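User: Reviewer 2 asked us to show a designed sequence for the structure in our supplementary figure. I'm pasting the structure tokens here. Could you produce the per-position amino acids so we can include them in the response letter?
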């Protein structure tokens, strides 16, 4: 299928992304009526009307929105040389750059500031997806050499601020660096809660993504090195060896597996013990205490740090070890 693209001046998915792009350059994950953006759907008159009715406030970095479109459009431009794709991608880059806070963080939504949408958001890799795009511009990787060279300096400045935010938000316990929370108050830069079942906590899934981004950096600063070393040490200290998480609609649970190691999604900010949030804003200390809907409807455990510990960190250390 991919080999055919080179022969075609257009890409049907990229064409749809142009239609969904909002006036401010970002993309929504949901339309005004809360229907999920789906590039597999035909652009019927009814759907086009719903897209047109979707306001700029719906522009977001959540669930890979905006970052996936910028990446795809850059790739589509390189294959087809259709300049409309590059123009849209660069407009998306302008949106990304405009959404960054002075402290270096990115919100989940921009410009919508309601609820938790204005918090600095690592959740679901929102901020890291953006930083990886900017790093691709700087390093001229993954097809981003096609964008206007003026973006390189802009990306360098945004990355420097983003790294500063990452360093400042790494949670300390009695002076010892640990990992990161999923989101932070945009002003105090302290860990914050999001949805009712997402308490302010140490967050393993997001922290693994942050560490991987930091390990991409060439000639890392002493602060970046310390952040990586401390985070991997935390992952190693709190791993649950010999178990994997089986998630299904009937009952989700940890299952013995001597080839696996796992972590809870959230840990208490001070005790480093697993915590689980429910729809009623309560925090449980055991998975079994959750309501059935939440117990089986969320990835409460995962092997997020296993590859870091076993492969990626040792490789990084061989180049960047102290």
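Assistant: Here is a per-position design you can include in the supplement:
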């Amino acid at each position: 299928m991919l080999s055919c693209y080179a022969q075609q001046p257009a890409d049907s998915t990229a064409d749809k992304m142009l239609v969904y792009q909002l006036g401010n350059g970002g993309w929504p994950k949901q339309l005004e009526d809360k229907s999920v953006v789906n590039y597999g759907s035909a652009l019927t008159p009814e759907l086009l009307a719903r897209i047109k009715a979707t306001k700029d406030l719906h522009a977001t970095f959540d669930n890979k929105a905006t970052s996936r479109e910028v990446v795809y459009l850059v790739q589509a431009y390189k294959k087809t040389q259709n300049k409309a794709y590059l123009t849209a991608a660069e407009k998306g880059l302008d949106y990304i750059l405009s959404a960054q806070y002075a402290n270096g963080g990115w919100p989940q939504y921009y410009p919508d500031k309601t609820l938790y949408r204005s918090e600095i958001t690592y959740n679901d890799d929102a901020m890291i997806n953006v930083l990886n795009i900017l790093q691709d511009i700087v390093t001229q990787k993954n097809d981003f050499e096609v964008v206007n060279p003026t973006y390189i300096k802009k990306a360098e400045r945004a990355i420097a601020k983003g790294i500063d935010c990452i360093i400042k938000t790494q949670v300390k316990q009695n002076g010892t660096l640990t990992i990161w929370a999923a989101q932070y108050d945009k002003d105090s830069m302290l860990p914050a809660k999001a949805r009712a079942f997402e308490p302010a906590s140490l967050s393993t899934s997001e922290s693994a993504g942050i560490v991987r981004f930091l390990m991409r950096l060439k000639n890392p600063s002493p602060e970046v090195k310390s952040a990586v070393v401390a985070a991997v040490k935390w992952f190693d200290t709190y791993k649950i060896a010999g178990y994997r998480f089986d998630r299904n609609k009937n009952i989700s649970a940890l299952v013995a597996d001597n080839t696996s190691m796992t972590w809870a999604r959230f840990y208490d900010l001070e005790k480093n013990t697993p915590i689980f949030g429910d729809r009623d804003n309560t925090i449980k200390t055991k998975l079994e205490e959750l309501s059935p809907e939440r117990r089986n409807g969320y990835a409460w455990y995962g092997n997020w740090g296993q590859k870091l510990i076993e492969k990626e960190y040792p490789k990084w250390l061989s180049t960047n070890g102290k």
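For the response letter, you might also mention the following. The chain is about 40% helix and 10% strand. The radius of gyration is 21 Å.
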